[in-house]
Amino acid sequence: MCGIVGLHLREPSLYPQLGALLTDMLAQMCDRGPDSAGMAIYGDRTWSPEGESTVSLLDCPIPAADLAATLSSTLDTTITGLDLDPTTILHGVVGAEDLAAAVRSVVPTARVIGFGNDLTVLKGVGNPVDLANRFGLPAATGWQGVAHTRMATESAVTAEGSHPFSVGPDECLVHNGSFSNHMSIKHQLERDGVVFDSANDTEVGARFVAKQLAEGVDLEKALLMLNETFDGFYTLLVSTVDSFAVVRDAISCKPAVIAETDQWVAMASEYRALANLPGVENARIFEPEPEEVYVWHR
Ligand SMILES: NC(=O)CC[C@H](N)C(=O)O
């Protein structure tokens, strides 16, 4: 199992409702992965203020305020820290990669789980709705959000193993299924210098896509390349700062449904997660075809 939900808003008047809508969608997918969960929000101006970059991390050994104070003096700019147990968020007027590098050098045992100009990633172990409420997801705002409830197949039930996997700037990937040839692809990527954080199969997909994007390949092409390279079962929802994409493997036994209106595009593992979206009664609703890449841009 595993449950995926994602919402890409086209209508700015809905941005204040992003977190509430996404929480409701996530709640419907709890039974597909009740042990751990994660979410990625694009454009929440509390977590990712305009003009600042944001880094999300797990396993921070010191309070966020203390880390922020150290980073402020290291980077010579004000860094703000927020504890959202077990995730820590840091933001400030500095490049996202520079902030992530500074975090890694000050707290090397912490795990960066997301970085970018507009993205906040939150992950944890426990009931997905409890986590969402603890993080304050219902009050989140923004133009795009993704959430995942995990039933582990490939690595332990830990916050690090939860999805999304966000390994490139403002990028996010969630997965329902399991890749069957990820170890050989992982070894090839390692030979190319890619460093992995976990034993999770989904991370291999995320690192593969991030590598293509970093080399200038567009998201649609990167996902076509993923289809050619990865075997196994997968429904993937992949997002960047301005794109929202869905792809499934050739057999497509992992469920997925997409709904689209002039106001939004939404995707979920099952229709019940879409049933309360405003205007869903007039949406174009369809199941994504095997190996077809669907991409929407902002
Ligand atoms: N049940 C699933 O879809 C699991 C997804 C992925 N293989 C993981 O273990 O994280």
From TrEMBL:
Protein name: glutamine--fructose-6-phosphate transaminase (isomerizing)
Originating organism: Rhodococcus koreensis
Span of domain Glutamine amidotransferase type-2: 2-298
Annotated catalysed reactions: D-fructose 6-phosphate + L-glutamine = D-glucosamine 6-phosphate + L-glutamate
EC id: 2.6.1.16
SUPFAM superfamilies assigned: N-terminal nucleophile aminohydrolases (Ntn hydrolases)
GO molecular function, one term: glutamine-fructose-6-phosphate transaminase (isomerizing) activity
The keyword Translocase is annotated on this UniProt entry: no
Domain of life: Bacteria
Pfam families referenced in this protein's UniProt entry, alphabetically: GATase_6
Leading EC class: transferase
